[in-house]
Amino acid sequence: MLIKPLVEIEKKIVQKMSMKNRGEQPTRSVISQKWTLLFCIGSFCAGMLFTSRMWTVPESKGIIRTTTTIEAEKLKLVSEGCDPKTLHRKDVKHESKDIVGEVSKTHHAIQTLDKTISNLEMELAAARAGQESIISASSMSEDLNKNNSSGKRKYFMVIGINTAFSSRKRRDSVRATWMPQGERRKKLEEEKGIIIRFVIGHSATLGGILDRAIEAEDKKHGDFLRLDHVEGYLELSAKTKTYFATAVALWDADFYIKVDDDVHVNIATLGETLARHRKNPRVYIGCMKSGPVLAQKGVRYHEPEYWKFGEAGNKYFRHATGQLYAISKDLATYISINQHVLHKYANEDVSLGSWFIGLDVEHIDDRRLCCGTPPDCEWKAQAGNICVASFDWSCSGICRSVERIKEVHQRCGEGDNAVWTAAF
Protein backbone atom coordinates (compact mmCIF):
# COMPACT_ATOMS: atom_id res chain seq x y z
CA MET A 1 0.00 0.00 0.00
CA LEU A 2 2.91 2.34 0.68
CA ILE A 3 4.84 1.41 -2.44
CA LYS A 4 2.60 3.15 -4.97
CA PRO A 5 2.93 6.71 -3.47
CA LEU A 6 6.63 6.22 -3.09
CA VAL A 7 7.00 5.23 -6.70
CA GLU A 8 5.16 8.40 -7.83
CA ILE A 9 7.41 10.58 -5.66
CA GLU A 10 10.47 8.91 -7.18
CA LYS A 11 9.19 9.66 -10.67
CA LYS A 12 8.74 13.37 -9.78
CA ILE A 13 12.26 13.53 -8.34
CA VAL A 14 13.68 11.99 -11.49
CA GLN A 15 11.78 14.52 -13.62
CA LYS A 16 13.04 17.38 -11.49
CA MET A 17 16.63 16.26 -11.79
CA SER A 18 16.34 15.84 -15.55
CA MET A 19 14.92 19.39 -15.82
CA LYS A 20 17.77 20.69 -13.74
CA ASN A 21 20.26 19.03 -15.99
CA ARG A 22 18.66 20.74 -19.00
CA GLY A 23 18.87 24.16 -17.30
CA GLU A 24 15.24 24.46 -16.44
CA GLN A 25 14.23 26.16 -13.19
CA PRO A 26 12.36 24.13 -10.67
CA THR A 27 9.03 25.16 -9.37
CA ARG A 28 8.38 25.98 -5.82
CA SER A 29 6.33 22.90 -5.25
CA VAL A 30 9.35 20.58 -5.74
CA ILE A 31 10.47 18.73 -2.62
CA SER A 32 13.91 19.48 -1.24
CA GLN A 33 16.84 17.03 -1.50
CA LYS A 34 16.67 16.12 2.19
CA TRP A 35 13.12 14.96 1.85
CA THR A 36 14.05 13.03 -1.26
CA LEU A 37 16.75 11.18 0.56
CA LEU A 38 14.37 10.43 3.42
CA PHE A 39 11.77 9.16 0.99
CA CYS A 40 14.35 6.84 -0.63
CA ILE A 41 15.42 5.41 2.72
CA GLY A 42 11.76 4.95 3.67
CA SER A 43 11.06 3.19 0.41
CA PHE A 44 13.93 0.82 1.00
CA CYS A 45 12.76 0.03 4.54
CA ALA A 46 9.17 -0.45 3.36
CA GLY A 47 10.40 -2.87 0.66
CA MET A 48 12.40 -4.87 3.18
CA LEU A 49 9.42 -5.01 5.53
CA PHE A 50 7.09 -6.21 2.78
CA THR A 51 9.57 -8.87 1.61
CA SER A 52 10.10 -10.30 5.10
CA ARG A 53 6.34 -10.65 5.64
CA MET A 54 5.53 -12.28 2.25
CA TRP A 55 8.51 -14.70 2.11
CA THR A 56 8.94 -16.23 5.55
CA VAL A 57 12.05 -18.46 5.67
CA PRO A 58 11.44 -21.79 7.47
CA GLU A 59 13.13 -22.12 10.78
CA SER A 60 16.27 -24.29 10.79
CA LYS A 61 15.01 -25.98 13.93
CA GLY A 62 12.00 -27.28 11.99
CA ILE A 63 14.25 -28.66 9.28
CA ILE A 64 16.49 -30.33 11.80
CA ARG A 65 13.44 -31.65 13.65
CA THR A 66 11.94 -33.05 10.44
CA THR A 67 15.25 -34.71 9.48
CA THR A 68 15.62 -36.15 12.95
CA THR A 69 12.04 -37.47 12.85
CA ILE A 70 12.71 -39.22 9.49
CA GLU A 71 15.91 -40.80 10.82
CA ALA A 72 14.07 -41.93 13.94
CA GLU A 73 11.36 -43.53 11.81
CA LYS A 74 14.03 -45.32 9.76
CA LEU A 75 15.70 -46.58 12.94
CA LYS A 76 12.34 -47.76 14.22
CA LEU A 77 11.68 -49.62 10.98
CA VAL A 78 15.13 -51.25 11.09
CA SER A 79 14.69 -52.26 14.75
CA GLU A 80 11.32 -53.84 13.91
CA GLY A 81 12.81 -55.68 10.93
CA CYS A 82 11.02 -53.43 8.45
CA ASP A 83 13.99 -51.76 6.81
CA PRO A 84 13.00 -50.94 3.22
CA LYS A 85 16.15 -52.68 1.94
CA THR A 86 15.45 -55.64 4.22
CA LEU A 87 11.82 -55.67 3.14
CA HIS A 88 12.96 -55.65 -0.48
CA ARG A 89 15.31 -58.54 0.15
CA LYS A 90 12.55 -60.41 1.98
CA ASP A 91 10.18 -59.80 -0.89
CA VAL A 92 12.79 -61.11 -3.33
CA LYS A 93 13.42 -64.18 -1.15
CA HIS A 94 9.70 -64.77 -0.78
CA GLU A 95 9.22 -64.47 -4.51
CA SER A 96 12.17 -66.85 -5.06
CA LYS A 97 10.64 -69.37 -2.66
CA ASP A 98 7.33 -69.08 -4.45
CA ILE A 99 9.03 -69.66 -7.80
CA VAL A 100 10.99 -72.65 -6.47
CA GLY A 101 7.80 -74.05 -4.97
CA GLU A 102 5.94 -73.69 -8.26
CA VAL A 103 8.82 -75.31 -10.16
CA SER A 104 8.88 -78.19 -7.65
CA LYS A 105 5.14 -78.70 -7.99
CA THR A 106 5.42 -78.63 -11.78
CA HIS A 107 8.31 -81.12 -11.72
CA HIS A 108 6.33 -83.44 -9.44
CA ALA A 109 3.32 -83.18 -11.72
CA ILE A 110 5.48 -84.02 -14.75
CA GLN A 111 6.96 -87.05 -12.95
CA THR A 112 3.49 -88.26 -12.01
CA LEU A 113 2.33 -87.79 -15.59
CA ASP A 114 5.39 -89.64 -16.94
CA LYS A 115 4.74 -92.53 -14.55
CA THR A 116 1.10 -92.70 -15.61
CA ILE A 117 2.09 -92.66 -19.29
CA SER A 118 4.67 -95.41 -18.68
CA ASN A 119 2.08 -97.56 -16.94
CA LEU A 120 -0.38 -97.04 -19.77
CA GLU A 121 2.32 -97.88 -22.33
CA MET A 122 3.16 -101.09 -20.47
CA GLU A 123 -0.51 -102.07 -20.32
CA LEU A 124 -0.91 -101.27 -23.99
CA ALA A 125 2.21 -103.27 -24.87
CA ALA A 126 0.95 -106.20 -22.82
CA ALA A 127 -2.42 -106.11 -24.55
CA ARG A 128 -0.77 -105.80 -27.96
CA ALA A 129 1.62 -108.67 -27.18
CA GLY A 130 -1.25 -110.87 -26.05
CA GLN A 131 -3.26 -110.06 -29.14
CA GLU A 132 -0.33 -110.64 -31.50
CA SER A 133 0.58 -113.87 -29.74
CA ILE A 134 -2.95 -115.23 -30.01
CA ILE A 135 -3.13 -114.30 -33.68
CA SER A 136 0.29 -115.77 -34.44
CA ALA A 137 -0.60 -118.96 -32.64
CA SER A 138 -3.87 -119.49 -34.49
CA SER A 139 -2.51 -122.76 -35.91
CA MET A 140 -2.39 -124.11 -32.36
CA SER A 141 -6.16 -124.50 -32.35
CA GLU A 142 -6.08 -127.46 -30.00
CA ASP A 143 -4.26 -125.53 -27.27
CA LEU A 144 -6.37 -122.41 -27.73
CA ASN A 145 -9.65 -124.35 -27.66
CA LYS A 146 -8.56 -126.09 -24.48
CA ASN A 147 -7.71 -122.77 -22.82
CA ASN A 148 -10.92 -121.09 -23.96
CA SER A 149 -13.24 -123.94 -23.01
CA SER A 150 -11.89 -124.93 -19.61
CA GLY A 151 -10.24 -121.66 -18.58
CA LYS A 152 -6.50 -121.13 -18.23
CA ARG A 153 -5.18 -123.88 -15.98
CA LYS A 154 -1.92 -123.67 -14.11
CA TYR A 155 1.11 -125.49 -15.53
CA PHE A 156 4.46 -126.24 -13.98
CA MET A 157 6.77 -125.51 -16.93
CA VAL A 158 6.79 -124.88 -20.65
CA ILE A 159 9.74 -126.32 -22.60
CA GLY A 160 10.30 -124.68 -25.97
CA ILE A 161 12.71 -126.55 -28.25
CA ASN A 162 14.28 -124.11 -30.68
CA THR A 163 14.39 -125.60 -34.16
CA ALA A 164 14.74 -124.65 -37.84
CA PHE A 165 13.22 -125.70 -41.16
CA SER A 166 16.27 -127.83 -42.00
CA SER A 167 16.26 -129.70 -38.68
CA ARG A 168 13.65 -132.39 -39.37
CA LYS A 169 16.07 -135.23 -38.51
CA ARG A 170 17.04 -133.52 -35.25
CA ARG A 171 13.41 -133.22 -34.27
CA ASP A 172 12.81 -136.90 -35.01
CA SER A 173 15.85 -137.86 -32.89
CA VAL A 174 14.48 -135.83 -29.97
CA ARG A 175 11.05 -137.45 -30.34
CA ALA A 176 12.74 -140.87 -30.29
CA THR A 177 14.66 -140.17 -27.04
CA TRP A 178 13.71 -137.73 -24.28
CA MET A 179 10.46 -136.13 -25.58
CA PRO A 180 7.29 -138.20 -24.92
CA GLN A 181 4.97 -138.71 -27.88
CA GLY A 182 1.27 -139.10 -28.50
CA GLU A 183 -0.81 -139.97 -25.45
CA ARG A 184 2.21 -139.90 -23.17
CA ARG A 185 2.80 -136.24 -24.06
CA LYS A 186 -0.84 -135.36 -23.38
CA LYS A 187 -0.66 -137.26 -20.08
CA LEU A 188 2.48 -135.32 -19.21
CA GLU A 189 0.57 -132.07 -19.72
CA GLU A 190 -2.49 -133.13 -17.75
CA GLU A 191 -0.84 -134.93 -14.84
CA LYS A 192 2.47 -133.14 -14.46
CA GLY A 193 1.69 -129.76 -15.96
CA ILE A 194 4.63 -129.95 -18.40
CA ILE A 195 4.24 -128.53 -21.92
CA ILE A 196 6.82 -129.47 -24.59
CA ARG A 197 6.77 -127.90 -28.08
CA PHE A 198 9.12 -127.39 -31.00
CA VAL A 199 9.32 -123.63 -31.58
CA ILE A 200 9.51 -122.27 -35.12
CA GLY A 201 8.36 -119.22 -37.07
CA HIS A 202 7.62 -118.96 -40.78
CA SER A 203 9.71 -118.51 -43.91
CA ALA A 204 10.31 -115.24 -45.72
CA THR A 205 7.81 -116.49 -48.31
CA LEU A 206 4.77 -116.99 -46.13
CA GLY A 207 2.88 -120.14 -47.14
CA GLY A 208 5.80 -121.46 -49.21
CA ILE A 209 7.13 -124.99 -49.40
CA LEU A 210 8.99 -124.70 -46.07
CA ASP A 211 5.88 -123.61 -44.21
CA ARG A 212 3.79 -126.34 -45.82
CA ALA A 213 6.34 -128.95 -44.75
CA ILE A 214 6.11 -127.79 -41.11
CA GLU A 215 2.30 -127.78 -41.30
CA ALA A 216 2.33 -131.38 -42.51
CA GLU A 217 4.75 -132.39 -39.74
CA ASP A 218 2.62 -130.62 -37.14
CA LYS A 219 -0.50 -132.34 -38.43
CA LYS A 220 1.23 -135.67 -37.85
CA HIS A 221 2.74 -134.99 -34.39
CA GLY A 222 0.89 -131.96 -33.06
CA ASP A 223 3.96 -130.77 -31.16
CA PHE A 224 4.76 -127.35 -32.72
CA LEU A 225 4.42 -123.81 -31.43
CA ARG A 226 4.29 -121.54 -34.47
CA LEU A 227 5.49 -117.97 -34.00
CA ASP A 228 4.78 -114.77 -35.89
CA HIS A 229 8.46 -114.51 -36.75
CA VAL A 230 10.62 -114.79 -39.88
CA GLU A 231 13.21 -117.53 -39.40
CA GLY A 232 16.91 -116.71 -39.72
CA TYR A 233 20.09 -117.36 -37.75
CA LEU A 234 20.68 -113.66 -37.18
CA GLU A 235 17.13 -113.28 -35.84
CA LEU A 236 17.47 -115.59 -32.83
CA SER A 237 17.19 -112.71 -30.33
CA ALA A 238 13.90 -111.60 -31.88
CA LYS A 239 12.70 -115.22 -31.96
CA THR A 240 13.50 -115.62 -28.25
CA LYS A 241 11.42 -112.57 -27.37
CA THR A 242 8.52 -113.76 -29.48
CA TYR A 243 8.71 -117.26 -27.99
CA PHE A 244 8.43 -116.05 -24.39
CA ALA A 245 5.65 -113.59 -25.25
CA THR A 246 3.66 -116.27 -27.08
CA ALA A 247 4.21 -118.93 -24.41
CA VAL A 248 3.07 -116.58 -21.63
CA ALA A 249 -0.07 -115.75 -23.61
CA LEU A 250 -0.93 -119.43 -24.18
CA TRP A 251 0.06 -121.10 -20.92
CA ASP A 252 0.15 -119.88 -17.33
CA ALA A 253 3.22 -121.66 -15.99
CA ASP A 254 5.74 -121.26 -13.17
CA PHE A 255 8.74 -121.57 -15.50
CA TYR A 256 9.53 -121.13 -19.18
CA ILE A 257 12.50 -122.99 -20.68
CA LYS A 258 14.34 -122.59 -23.96
CA VAL A 259 16.49 -125.48 -25.21
CA ASP A 260 18.18 -126.25 -28.55
CA ASP A 261 17.17 -129.27 -30.62
CA ASP A 262 20.67 -130.81 -30.40
CA VAL A 263 20.73 -131.03 -26.59
CA HIS A 264 19.72 -134.01 -24.45
CA VAL A 265 17.41 -133.21 -21.52
CA ASN A 266 16.31 -135.21 -18.48
CA ILE A 267 12.81 -133.82 -17.87
CA ALA A 268 12.33 -135.11 -14.31
CA THR A 269 15.72 -133.78 -13.16
CA LEU A 270 14.94 -130.44 -14.79
CA GLY A 271 11.61 -130.29 -12.96
CA GLU A 272 13.17 -131.14 -9.60
CA THR A 273 15.82 -128.46 -10.12
CA LEU A 274 13.28 -125.76 -10.95
CA ALA A 275 10.95 -126.76 -8.11
CA ARG A 276 13.60 -125.69 -5.59
CA HIS A 277 13.28 -122.10 -6.83
CA ARG A 278 9.49 -121.94 -7.01
CA LYS A 279 9.23 -119.41 -4.18
CA ASN A 280 11.44 -116.89 -5.96
CA PRO A 281 9.28 -114.83 -8.34
CA ARG A 282 12.23 -113.60 -10.46
CA VAL A 283 14.78 -116.31 -11.12
CA TYR A 284 17.13 -116.86 -14.08
CA ILE A 285 18.66 -120.35 -14.15
CA GLY A 286 21.40 -121.72 -16.38
CA CYS A 287 25.13 -122.23 -16.78
CA MET A 288 26.37 -118.71 -16.26
CA LYS A 289 29.33 -117.58 -18.34
CA SER A 290 31.17 -114.42 -19.34
CA GLY A 291 32.81 -114.97 -22.70
CA PRO A 292 34.96 -112.52 -24.66
CA VAL A 293 33.39 -109.84 -26.85
CA LEU A 294 34.53 -110.68 -30.37
CA ALA A 295 35.10 -107.52 -32.40
CA GLN A 296 36.72 -109.18 -35.42
CA LYS A 297 34.41 -109.51 -38.38
CA GLY A 298 33.91 -112.89 -40.02
CA VAL A 299 34.42 -114.97 -36.88
CA ARG A 300 31.65 -116.99 -35.24
CA TYR A 301 29.73 -115.10 -32.57
CA HIS A 302 31.02 -111.75 -33.86
CA GLU A 303 29.55 -108.86 -31.90
CA PRO A 304 28.81 -105.85 -34.18
CA GLU A 305 28.16 -103.66 -31.13
CA TYR A 306 31.43 -104.60 -29.43
CA TRP A 307 32.19 -100.93 -28.67
CA LYS A 308 29.34 -100.86 -26.13
CA PHE A 309 31.25 -103.24 -23.89
CA GLY A 310 34.29 -101.03 -23.36
CA GLU A 311 37.86 -101.56 -24.43
CA ALA A 312 39.01 -104.29 -26.79
CA GLY A 313 39.43 -107.63 -25.02
CA ASN A 314 36.62 -107.02 -22.54
CA LYS A 315 34.15 -109.74 -21.61
CA TYR A 316 30.37 -109.87 -21.58
CA PHE A 317 28.37 -109.54 -18.38
CA ARG A 318 27.28 -112.80 -16.72
CA HIS A 319 24.55 -114.60 -18.66
CA ALA A 320 23.30 -118.15 -19.15
CA THR A 321 24.66 -120.16 -22.05
CA GLY A 322 22.15 -120.48 -24.86
CA GLN A 323 21.89 -124.28 -25.04
CA LEU A 324 19.38 -124.36 -22.16
CA TYR A 325 18.10 -121.81 -19.66
CA ALA A 326 14.96 -121.26 -17.62
CA ILE A 327 13.22 -118.13 -16.36
CA SER A 328 10.31 -117.65 -13.97
CA LYS A 329 6.87 -116.42 -14.98
CA ASP A 330 7.48 -112.83 -13.85
CA LEU A 331 10.53 -112.51 -16.11
CA ALA A 332 8.73 -114.06 -19.07
CA THR A 333 5.88 -111.61 -18.52
CA TYR A 334 8.37 -108.73 -18.33
CA ILE A 335 9.78 -109.74 -21.72
CA SER A 336 6.26 -110.00 -23.15
CA ILE A 337 5.28 -106.54 -21.94
CA ASN A 338 8.51 -104.82 -23.01
CA GLN A 339 9.40 -106.84 -26.10
CA HIS A 340 9.06 -103.81 -28.39
CA VAL A 341 11.74 -101.83 -26.53
CA LEU A 342 14.19 -104.58 -25.49
CA HIS A 343 17.46 -104.30 -27.41
CA LYS A 344 18.65 -107.26 -29.50
CA TYR A 345 22.34 -108.14 -29.66
CA ALA A 346 23.77 -110.51 -32.26
CA ASN A 347 23.79 -113.47 -29.83
CA GLU A 348 20.46 -114.41 -28.26
CA ASP A 349 21.93 -115.59 -24.93
CA VAL A 350 23.66 -112.21 -24.54
CA SER A 351 20.41 -110.44 -25.40
CA LEU A 352 18.47 -112.38 -22.76
CA GLY A 353 21.07 -111.60 -20.10
CA SER A 354 21.03 -107.91 -21.02
CA TRP A 355 17.26 -107.70 -20.56
CA PHE A 356 17.61 -108.59 -16.88
CA ILE A 357 20.39 -106.11 -16.05
CA GLY A 358 19.06 -103.56 -13.62
CA LEU A 359 16.23 -105.83 -12.47
CA ASP A 360 16.00 -107.55 -9.09
CA VAL A 361 16.72 -110.99 -10.56
CA GLU A 362 18.39 -113.95 -8.87
CA HIS A 363 20.96 -115.57 -11.17
CA ILE A 364 21.32 -119.31 -10.51
CA ASP A 365 24.50 -120.89 -11.88
CA ASP A 366 23.78 -124.64 -12.00
CA ARG A 367 26.46 -126.66 -13.82
CA ARG A 368 24.15 -129.66 -14.14
CA LEU A 369 22.46 -127.73 -16.97
CA CYS A 370 25.60 -127.98 -19.10
CA CYS A 371 27.18 -131.40 -18.63
CA GLY A 372 29.36 -132.89 -21.33
CA THR A 373 28.44 -135.95 -23.34
CA PRO A 374 29.71 -139.38 -22.23
CA PRO A 375 31.79 -140.10 -20.36
CA ASP A 376 31.18 -136.87 -18.38
CA CYS A 377 27.41 -137.15 -17.93
CA GLU A 378 27.67 -140.95 -17.51
CA TRP A 379 30.11 -140.71 -14.59
CA LYS A 380 27.89 -138.13 -12.89
CA ALA A 381 24.82 -140.32 -13.38
CA GLN A 382 26.61 -143.31 -11.85
CA ALA A 383 27.56 -141.10 -8.88
CA GLY A 384 23.89 -140.22 -8.36
CA ASN A 385 24.25 -136.70 -9.71
CA ILE A 386 22.15 -136.94 -12.86
CA CYS A 387 22.60 -134.09 -15.33
CA VAL A 388 19.75 -131.87 -16.47
CA ALA A 389 21.23 -131.34 -19.93
CA SER A 390 24.17 -132.75 -21.88
CA PHE A 391 25.97 -131.46 -24.97
CA ASP A 392 29.44 -130.81 -26.40
CA TRP A 393 30.85 -127.32 -25.82
CA SER A 394 32.94 -127.59 -28.97
CA CYS A 395 29.80 -127.95 -31.10
CA SER A 396 27.48 -125.78 -28.93
CA GLY A 397 25.32 -128.89 -28.85
CA ILE A 398 25.78 -132.63 -29.28
CA CYS A 399 28.21 -133.13 -32.14
CA ARG A 400 26.40 -135.09 -34.88
CA SER A 401 23.36 -135.14 -32.62
CA VAL A 402 21.16 -137.10 -35.03
CA GLU A 403 23.53 -140.10 -34.76
CA ARG A 404 24.69 -139.66 -31.14
CA ILE A 405 21.72 -138.42 -29.09
CA LYS A 406 20.35 -141.96 -28.70
CA GLU A 407 23.67 -143.08 -27.17
CA VAL A 408 23.66 -140.08 -24.82
CA HIS A 409 20.10 -140.92 -23.78
CA GLN A 410 21.00 -144.54 -23.02
CA ARG A 411 24.14 -143.73 -21.03
CA CYS A 412 23.10 -140.47 -19.30
CA GLY A 413 19.31 -140.66 -19.23
CA GLU A 414 17.33 -140.76 -15.98
CA GLY A 415 15.02 -143.55 -17.17
CA ASP A 416 11.72 -143.41 -19.00
CA ASN A 417 9.65 -143.72 -15.82
CA ALA A 418 11.49 -141.05 -13.81
CA VAL A 419 9.18 -138.23 -14.88
CA TRP A 420 6.07 -140.18 -13.82
CA THR A 421 7.35 -140.91 -10.32
CA ALA A 422 8.83 -137.46 -9.72
CA ALA A 423 7.01 -134.99 -7.45
CA PHE A 424 7.45 -131.34 -8.41
Overall description:
By secondary structure, this protein is an alpha/beta fold. It has a domain at 154-287 and 321-421: Spore Coat Polysaccharide Biosynthesis Protein SpsA, Chain A (Alpha-Beta Complex), CATH 3.90.550. It has helices spanning 3-21, 33-54, 60-79, 84-136, 141-150, 168-175, 183-192, 209-221, 236-250, 267-275, 329-338, 348-355, 376-382, 401-412, 418-421, and strands at 154-162, 194-202, 224-230, 252-260, 264-265, 283-289, 319-328, 362-365, 389-390. α8 links the parallel β2 and β3 (224-230). α1 (3-21) runs antiparallel to α2 (33-54) and α6 runs parallel beside α14. One of its GO terms (molecular function) is galactosyltransferase activity. InterPro entries: DUF4094 (IPR025298), Glyco_trans_31 (IPR002659). Keywords: Glycosyltransferase, Golgi apparatus, Manganese, Membrane, Signal-anchor, Transferase, Transmembrane, Transmembrane helix.
Give the SSE layout.
Elements lengths: L2 H19 L11 H22 L5 H20 L4 H53 L4 H10 L3 E9 L5 H8 L7 H10 L1 E9 L6 H13 L2 E7 L5 H15 L1 E9 L3 E2 L1 H9 L7 E7 L29 E10 H10 L9 H8 L6 E4 L10 H7 L6 E2 L10 H12 L5 H4 L3
Parallel strand pairs: 1-2, 1-4, 2-3, 6-8
Antiparallel strand pairs: 4-7, 5-9, 6-7
Kindly report the spatial arrangement of strands forming the biggest sheet: 3-2-1-4-7-6-8
Q: Quote the distance from N terminus to C terminus.
A: 132 Å
Number of strands: 9
The arrangement of helices and strands along the chain is: HHHHHEHHEHEHEEHEEHHEHEHH
User: Helical percent range?
Assistant: 40-55%
Q: What summary fits the major beta sheet?
A: 7 strands, mixed
Please name the CATH architecture of the domain at 154-287 and 321-421.
Alpha-Beta Complex
Radius of gyration: 51 Å
* Shape category: elongated
Structural class: alpha/beta
Mean pLDDT: 81
CATH topology of the domain at 154-287 and 321-421: Spore Coat Polysaccharide Biosynthesis Protein SpsA, Chain A
Subcellular location: Golgi apparatus membrane
Cofactor: Mn(2+)
Pathway: Protein modification; protein glycosylation
Protein name: Hexosyltransferase
